[in-house]
């Protein structure tokens, strides 16, 4: 059975993240950040995509699967239930539905991982996305 990985880079360097992805056999990294920019070196969209491509891992940014700003603010302040409520409502939007279908198709065809900032997937919207993909594909979810 194929598994879907998730990874957060909050406490890691780019080398560590890419090493974990390679060790897990990931072929496509799905960036589910609304804003694919980061103050952490190596995690802004273009730099990350180039580094992943050099290691044989494709990069896809699905911006509509990111958390809207009010949800990010809630998560930043530890209000996970509020973030979940905001994010679940956001997933009903047509753009988010389209990109969720795209993420499901990628995960069906290739070993994939979802990327976001938070180290702990339990407090991150990527857990919600991973669970939806798991429910659709019947795959396992592994937090790297």
Features:
5 strands; alpha/beta; Protein-Tyrosine Phosphatase, Chain A; five-stranded parallel sheet; 144 residues
Q: How large is the count of helical segments?
A: 6
Strand order of the largest sheet: 3-2-4-1-5
Average pLDDT number? 95
Molecular shape = globular
| Relevant CATH superfamily | Protein tyrosine phosphatase superfamily
CATH architecture: Alpha-Beta Complex
Please trace the helix and strand order, writing H or E for each element: EHEHEHHHEHE
What low-confidence regions span 5 or more consecutive residues with pLDDT below 50?
A: none
Number of domains: 1
Proportion of residues in extended strands: 15-25%
CATH class: Alpha Beta
Q: End-to-end span in angstroms?
A: 17 Å
Structure description:
With 144 residues, this protein is an alpha/beta fold. It has one domain: Alpha-Beta Complex (Protein-Tyrosine Phosphatase, Chain A). It contains six helices and five strands, in the order βαβαβαααβαβ. The protein has a five-stranded parallel sheet with strand order 3-2-4-1-5, sandwiched between helices. β2 (28-31), α2 and β3 (58-61) form a beta-alpha-beta unit. α3 runs antiparallel to α4. The chain is globular, with a radius of gyration of 14 Å. The model has no long low-confidence stretch (mean pLDDT 95).
List the SSEs and their pairings.
Layout: E1 3-8, H1 14-23, E2 28-31, H2 45-54, E3 58-61, H3 69-76, H4 80-90, H5 94-109, E4 112-116, H6 125-137, E5 140-143
Parallel strand pairs: 1-4, 1-5, 2-3, 2-4
Helix pairs in contact: 3-4, 5-6
């Amino acid at each position: 059975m194929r598994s879907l990985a998730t990874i957060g880079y909050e406490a890691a360097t780019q080398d560590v993240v890419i090493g974990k992805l390679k060790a897990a056999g990931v072929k496509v990294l799905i960036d589910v950040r609304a804003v694919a920019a980061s103050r952490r070196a190596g995690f802004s969209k273009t730099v990350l995509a180039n580094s992943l491509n050099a290691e044989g891992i494709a990069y896809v940014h699905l911006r509509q699967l990111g958390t809207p700003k009010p949800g990010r603010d809630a998560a930043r302040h530890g209000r996970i239930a509020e973030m979940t409520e905001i994010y679940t409502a956001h997933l009903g939007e047509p753009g988010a539905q389209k990109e969720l279908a795209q993420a499901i198709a990628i995960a069906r065809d290739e070993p994939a991982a979802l990327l976001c900032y938070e180290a702990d997937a339990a407090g991150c919207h990527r857990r919600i996305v991973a669970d939806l993909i798991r429910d659709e594909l019947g795959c396992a979810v592994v937090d790297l």
